[in-house]
Design a protein that fits this description.
Protein name: Transmembrane and immunoglobulin domain-containing protein 1
Membrane topology: Single-pass type I membrane protein
Order of helices and strands: HEEEEEEEEEEEEEEEEE
Radius of gyration: 30 Å
Distance between the termini: 115 Å
Domain Ig-like: 23-114, 122-209
Helix content: 10-25%
Number of helices: 1
Signal peptide: 1-29
GO molecular function: cell adhesion molecule binding
């Protein structure tokens, strides 16, 4: 009985050594990006350059690192992979807003850390500058907008507030555009409509010119 107990104790000691040693090597490595140990948002602006440095902490052996931009793998030079790896994001633009960069351990890709770019920029407005319509037809003025932070949008007419008439004017707004629909346009709808976008950074205006022609009677 004493022999059995001794054998069991030796087995338990062996199992304990396995539990303490092997998983420790697999789980002890921690990744940091620019010194941060958790996923984070990086505030930046168009035209700037950002450097992201991923490093392995507490590693017990050489660890190869992988970088991803969204779902696409970033090509790294051979000297920029082991234990520490950097990627440089150059010529940042409005289109990089919300892009995620992720650093992973090649050996265990569930060990990863991500950085999301928060590119702040003033409103960018676009749309058809001139529209011509016949009396009685329907018109849509669409003011496209890109802005971060999101802008407050409004329509003006001839530099003054636009008086909305029920069943004649309708406004539709999303995060990407402000639309003014005019049903059965009249001569009085002729004029310059200003799309105004007001953000915390800057206020921008774009003019839309509507020319209403008399209905051609054949």
């Amino acid at each position: 009985m004493a022999w059995k107990t001794s054998s069991l104790m030796q087995m338990y000691r062996f199992l304990l050594l396995v539990i303490l040693s092997l998983p420790h090597e697999m789980t002890s490595s921690v990744l940091t990006v620019n010194g941060k140990t958790e996923n984070y948002i990086l505030d930046t602006e168009p035209g700037l350059e950002e450097s992201l440095n991923c490093a392995v902490q507490n590693h017990t052996r050489e660890e190869e690192l992988l970088w991803y931009r969204e779902d696409g793998r970033v090509d790294l030079k051979s000297g920029n992979k082991i234990n520490s790896s950097s990627v440089c994001v150059t010529s940042i633009s409005e289109n990089d807003n919300g892009i995620t960069f992720t650093c992973k351990l090649r050996r265990n890709q569930s060990t990863s850390i991500s950085v999301v770019l928060n590119v702040t920029f003033p409103p960018l407005l676009s749309g058809d500058d001139f529209q011509t319509a016949e009396e009685g037809s329907d018109v849509k003025l669409v003011c496209n907008v890109k802005s971060n932070p999101q802008a407050q949008m409004m329509w003006y007419k001839n530099s003054g507030f636009l008086n909305l008439e029920k069943k004649h004017h309708q406004i539709q707004q999303t995060s990407e555009y402000l639309q003014l629909s005019i049903t059965k346009v009249k001569k009085s709808d002729n004029g310059t409509y200003s799309c105004i976008a007001n953000s915390l950074i800057e206020t921008k205006t774009k003019d839309f010119h509507l020319i209403v022609k008399a209905l051609h009677k054949g």
